[in-house]
Amino acid sequence: MSQPAEYRNMEQFYPYYLQEHSDRTCRRLHFVGTSLGLALVIYAVATQTWWLIAAAFIQGYAFAWVGHFFFEHNKPATFQYPWLSYLGDWKMWWQMLTGKIKI
Fold it and tell me: Which of 6, 32, 91, 96 is 20 to 30 A from 22 via CA?
């Protein structure tokens, strides 16, 4: 699939996003990182330990980037499409959680 010069919405972007996450280990690392990030944000809010929200983003991206650099062997989409990539990660996470995408 060739990459358009610019994506205007998730409907256009998401097929590209999934293509960039074809490696199962990369997807698993995304799932773990996003899940841990969500848990950290929930804990941060519950305990009012606000610095943990920054830690949640850092560790979430760390898991994802390990997946891309060592397993998928590509550059994370977040470098070029930060907001769409962030939304794509949550959509992919939900589809893995609900069984639509194999973990």
Answer: 6
Taken in order 58, 97, 78, 85, the sign of the CA dihedral is negative
- Residue 82, burial from CB neighbour count under 10 angstroms (0-12, 13-18, 19+): exposed
What long-range pairs does 11-15 form, CB within 8 A, spacing at least 24? 13/81, 13/84, 13/88, 14/88, 14/91
pLDDT in tens, 26-44: 999 999 999 999 999 999 9
pTM of the model: 0.90
Return the closest-CA partner of residue 92 out of 62, 60, 66. 60
Residues 6+ apart with CB under 8 A from 9: none
